[in-house]
Each structure stands twice: as structure tokens, then as C-alpha cells.
Amino acid sequence: MGFGGISIWNLLIILAIIVLLFGTKKLRGIGTDLGSAIKGFRNSIKDEDKDNDAVKQDEDFNTSPKSAQMVEHAKPQAEQPAAAAQTPSTPTTSDKDKV
Fold first, then answer.
1. SS in 3 state form for the chain?
2. Residues 90, 93: Cα–Cα separation, whole Å
3. Tens of pLDDT along the chain (99 residues)?
4. Where is the composition biased (Low complexity) (predicted)?
5. CA 78, CA 68: separation in Å to the nearest integer?
6. Which of 10, 21, 64, 92 has its CA 20 to 30 A from that of 47?
7. Taking the CB of residue 22, how many other CB atoms lie within 10 A of it?
């Protein structure tokens, strides 16, 4: 027994009928077209994976803590937020005196 009750002899008979119906040139052309289509599909998948890897590496570089620190150091001093320049949200004593 072969594939689901079909023996090797049955498959050979089916193959012989297909060759008689279509001819060897037509079958060769179909095989070539199918092979080139599969090859093109594989190449496009590989190209897409390479593009995705390149984009992911760029994102990883831009979001890594090391590069974030490098970006902070590269900013001019005026653009960096200063902790001392921020005012506290609680009122000062002079504000209490005014009320």
C-alpha cells in the first residue's frame, strides 16, 4: 500500500496518462515556470527578512540605553532639561504670607 490506498503502480499509470495528455514539452515548461515562481518567492522572503532585520537593528540602536545617553550628551546645554530650573509645586513661605 502506498499513499492512502494508492500503490506505486497506480501512480505510474496516472503519470503516464498525464504525459500522454500534455506532452513532455508542456510538462517541462510547467515545471520550469513553477520552479522559477518558487525561487522568486523564496528570494522575496529573504529580501524582506533582511530589510526587517536592518530596520530592527536601527530601532535597537536608537532605543538602546547607551545610544540614548549618547544623544543626551550630544544635545546642547540649552535643550537639556535642568532639574534646578524646575520649580516645586508646593507654595513657598512668601506665597503663604500674601494670602
1. CCECCECHHHHHHHHHHHHHHHCHHHHHHHHHHHHHHHHHHHHHHHHHHHHHHHHHHHHHHHHCHHHHHHHHHHCCCCCCCCCCCCCCCCCCHHHHHHC
2. 10
3. 556 788 899 999 999 999 999 999 999 999 999 999 999 999 998 888 777 777 777 776 666 555 555 555 555 555 555 555 555 555 556 555 555
4. 77-93
5. 18
6. 64
7. 13
Lookup: cell for 61: 540602536
**Are 72 and 80 contacting, i.e. CB atoms less than 8 angstroms apart?**
yes
Kindly state the cell numbers that stand for 9.
503502480
* Grid coordinates given for 14: 496516472
Q: Which of 40, 19, 16 is nearest to 28 (CA)?
A: 19
Domain boundaries, the chain: 23-64
Q: Are 19 and 11 in contact (CB under 8 A)?
A: no
How many Cβ atoms from other residues are within 10 Å of residue 27's Cβ? 14
